[in-house]
Specification:
heterodimer; A: 503 residues; mainly alpha; two-stranded antiparallel sheet; 1% strand; B: 322 residues; alpha/beta; D-Maltodextrin-Binding Protein, domain 2; six-stranded mixed sheet; five-stranded mixed sheet; 20% strand; globular
Chain lengths: 503, 322
């Protein structure tokens, strides 16, 4: 209960001001397409040079929590996921916004984020030593199976059929091989200098999700002068709170999956939202409603991506190993003040450590309050006429892709993938499995290569990848997940007409 | 009125003409960009941000330096960009990592060599060290090599990738000890390599001295040897490889510094070469660097040129067998 003693520090006037600044700034940065949490935190590091260590970390901690939640705003309203964490939010969130329930979707997402986020930070506070062991338990073979588990999710994710889902997943896996291979440095499919570094996930995300939409909007804008104007329904906060707690299953699955997966270095943050979405769909009696603007989808995805914030810092704070790109940036923020994460942090600078963790806890609450406040205003975005909206989204898409690494190459990648995706979508393929393939490809490949190198040096590949309780458990889940997908496919096929499959 | 406009126009033209005639006398007159070919939060990025933070001071360049990250493919993306696309006008600088970019240019497949760039100054030198987990039975490099002799090719150890300082160190160790080792390159950089040592996935690892220092402070690893010519002030107790009987020099030491693309005007290079090292000597920069556990090693343009040439020769010989 040591953290309670330092809770007061967060509320000192200057510290609290920084916390507010970090939260509001984070929400705005998070809502800007292309500015991922990692970039937002990196942008703030120079400001912490002038601050005391604890104050600098308050700013960074608050910004980290609220950028993750802020990403939901553009995901829901514009269908541009700001970071991989928000992909799953677009699936139901944007459909809700199209139906005029944007305000409700935003409220649900902020409430679910706060619940998940607070749970995640509490885990960080109370269970850090236990969690550190868990984070280290995942070696190359386990990460490989985990990535394969992610691949099995692809088939059931937001496509008109399993086969199309798997096909678009394969396109994603292929796209992931472009560029210099991470381990050996071999060049693959590089036919333009812009592809040397491979396909960056953020421009790909923006292109795949936003561009097909822009093209559709332009097409619609020409078809009728009286563009359809969506009535934005008012949504009382009380109802949203009741809704979140009514959907206990989605909330629990989201929070649980987010905190467990978020902990695993290198993998967690990117796929937590998608895995949680898929799991709550499989466990829900209303599975068929997912993807049509169902509140459970938004709740599960957002609870998961904020639940991951706390646990994702466990490897950094205890072992001094940054488990995610954002954690690496935070490490820089600590080192610049001469503080080494690890036992040194908690033994010699407990004020810094606990103030930082507390600021994330309070930050979650503030983020929720501000989020709810702006939800009603933000949702009126849906009222903007299609032609104007298309131009704005296109502008944001170009800006967002360029700003990732100040490269026009990324803008070309974004545009090319976007136009390609427009045609794929017309044939019933979906962007979410494609992106998942793009994210999981390198994880599966690199860990397989590393695992087999270790296996060849020590034992055999079979015993390295197929023995040990953790490997076997993961394999069992993979088999169960594949089996479930096929069973669902066979069962639903009887009721699906040919036209529906054609999309 | 017309006369007045014509007069103003003439005056303006004379002014701009004067500015052109003066050439680079007023360089720099706008902010400068420093390209870092690794992601935000990495050691190179972190150090680059610290050593350039005083650039805006009157006694330094007088204009701020902004960091631009162009990560990817172990640094190749950024250095390709600097060599082929960046403007050589003195407003685009790049951070270099030796031996990485020289080793990559020897390996091939990139559009740069050491001749594509002009060094300005060196700020840091981060030697590679050999680490093992805190509970490992190995207590010296001799224990490690003995194990490797009993199990040829069975000693697994991690590092940050191929054709980087860690890989060079691994090759040197294999050559000096005359054993076959299993080097496992990590795709998640030094942090990923360190994690696999602490988690016990591999028996040991080559890592940066600065990161190993932190991991040792946290009680997670033992450091068995430094791949450098002399002991490092951050860990006086750790012997060098040469002290332990292995003929290994400082070819794997990760030197970090500032360079510009070839074709940058000579007056600009001279100005930068004179000012940038004094920026690195700034006491607040030195304080922040040592607080962060990052060893500094300031070198002037001439010294860096010498070091580049020496590295080129060593690496060509070492990598010839691959």
């Amino acid at each position: 209960m040591e953290f309670v003693g330092y809770l007061g520090d967060v509320f000192l006037p200057f510290n609290f001001l920084l916390l507010l600044l970090g939260t509001i700034g984070g929400l705005i940065l998070g809502a800007t397409p292309g500015l991922s949490p990692t970039m937002a935190v990196a942008l703030l590091i120079p400001f912490t040079f002038q601050l005391a260590p604890a104050q600098g970390l308050i700013l960074l901690g608050a910004a980290y929590t609220s950028t993750v939640a802020g990403g939901a705003v553009s995901a829901i309203l514009l269908k541009i996921p700001g970071a991989p964490a928000n992909i799953a939010t677009t699936l139901d969130g944007h459909t809700m916004a199209q139906k005029g329930q944007g305000a409700k979707a935003l409220q649900l997402s902020f409430l679910a984020s706060a619940v998940g986020g607070i749970f995640g930070v509490l885990l960080l506070i109370f269970l850090t030593p236990v969690l550190a062991k868990w984070a280290l338990a995942f070696g190359p073979s386990h990460l490989f199976w985990l990535a394969i588990l992610g691949v099995t999710v692809i088939g059931t994710l937001d496509s008109s059929s399993v086969v199309k889902g798997l096909l678009s997943g394969c396109i994603g896996l292929w796209l992931a091989t472009i560029g210099f291979d991470d381990i050996m440095g071999a060049q693959r499919f590089i036919f333009h200098p812009a592809l040397g570094g491979g396909i960056n996930v953020i421009p790909a995300l923006i292109g795949l999700f936003a561009i097909p939409q822009v093209i559709t909007m332009f097409a619609k804008g020409r078809a009728s002068t009286a563009a359809e104007v969506i009535v934005v329904q008012k949504s009382p906060i009380k109802e949203a709170i009741a809704e979140v707690f009514k959907r206990k299953r989605a909330l629990a699955i989201g929070t649980g999956v987010g905190s467990i997966i978020g902990l695993i270095p290198g993998v967690g943050g990117q796929i937590a939202g998608l895995v949680a979405y898929d799991q709550s769909k499989k466990f829900s009696p209303e599975a068929e409603k997912f993807g049509t603007g169902h509140s459970e989808g938004v709740i599960a995805a957002e609870a998961a991506n904020n639940a991951m914030v706390g646990p994702s810092l466990v490897p950094l704070l205890t072992l001094s190993i940054p488990g995610s790109p954002t954690a690496a940036v935070l490490l820089g923020g600590l080192l610049i003040h001469g503080i080494f994460p690890g036992s040194d942090l908690f033994d010699n600078h407990p004020d810094v450590a606990w103030t930082f963790i507390n600021s994330m806890l309070i930050g979650q609450v503030l983020m929720c309050i501000f989020g709810l406040y702006v939800a009603g205003l933000a949702a009126s975005v849906a009222r903007v006429p299609h032609s104007v909206m298309a131009a704005v989204v296109l502008g944001l898409a170009v800006f967002g892709s360029y700003s990732v690494q100040n490269s026009m190459g990324d803008v070309y990648v974004m545009a090319t993938l976007g136009v390609g995706m427009y045609f794929l979508e017309r044939f019933g393929f979906s962007a979410a499995p494609l992106v998942l393939g793009l994210i999981l490809g390198p994880i599966a490949e690199a860990n397989f290569i590393q695992g087999s190198m270790i296996a060849n040096a020590t034992s055999s590949i079979t015993s390295y990848f197929f023995t040990g309780p953790l490997n076997l458990t993961l394999i069992a889940i993979v088999v169960a997940s594949v089996g479930y997908s096929f069973w669902m496919e066979l069962r639903s096929r009887r009721y699906t007409s040919k036209e529906e499959i054609m999309g | 009125m017309k006369k007045w406009i014509a007069g103003a126009a003439t005056a303006l033209m004379t002014l701009t003409g004067a500015a052109f005639a003066e050439g680079h006398g007023d360089y720099p007159d706008r902010p400068i960009m420093l390209m870092v070919s690794y992601g935000a939060g990495g050691a190179t990025d972190f150090q680059a941000r610290i050593v350039t933070m005083t650039a805006g001071n009157e006694d330094a360049l007088g204009v701020p330096i902004a960091i631009i990250n162009k990560p990817g493919a172990g640094g190749r993306v950024g250095w390709n960009w600097l060599a082929s696309q960046a403007e050589a006008d003195g407003y685009t600088l790049g951070a270099y990592n030796i031996p990485h970019f020289i080793a990559q240019s020897i390996e091939g497949g990139v559009s740069y060599t050491a001749d594509s760039f002009e060094p300005i100054a060196n700020w840091g030198a981060d030697p590679a060290v050999f680490v093992v987990a805190a509970d490992s039975p190995f207590n010296s490099m001799q224990d490690v090599v003995d194990y490797a002799k009993e199990n040829p090719g069975g000693l697994t150890f991690s590092g940050a990738g191929l054709f980087v300082g860690h890989h060079i160190a691994a090759l040197q160790l294999e050559k000096a000890a005359g054993v076959k080792l299993a080097y496992i390159p990590s795709n998640a950089g030094g942090a990923g390599a360190m994690k696999s040592v602490i988690a016990g996935e591999v028996l040991g690892g080559v890592n940066n001295l600065s990161d190993a220092f932190r991991a040792r402070e946290a009680g997670n690893v033992k450091v068995l040897g430094v791949f450098d010519l002399e002991r490092n002030s951050f860990m006086e107790d750790v012997p060098t490889m040469a002290e332990q009987g292995f003929d290994i020099d400082n070819a794997s030491v990760n030197f970090r510094g500032v360079m510009v693309p070839k074709g940058t005007p000579q007056p600009v290079i001279d100005h930068l070469a004179a000012v940038v090292p004094t920026m690195f000597e700034n006491s607040s920069v030195q304080g922040k660097m040592s607080a962060g556990g990052s060893p500094m090693h300031v070198m002037t343009r001439e010294e860096v040129q010498e070091m580049w040439t020496a590295r080129q020769a060593t690496l060509q010989e070492l990598l010839a067998g691959l």
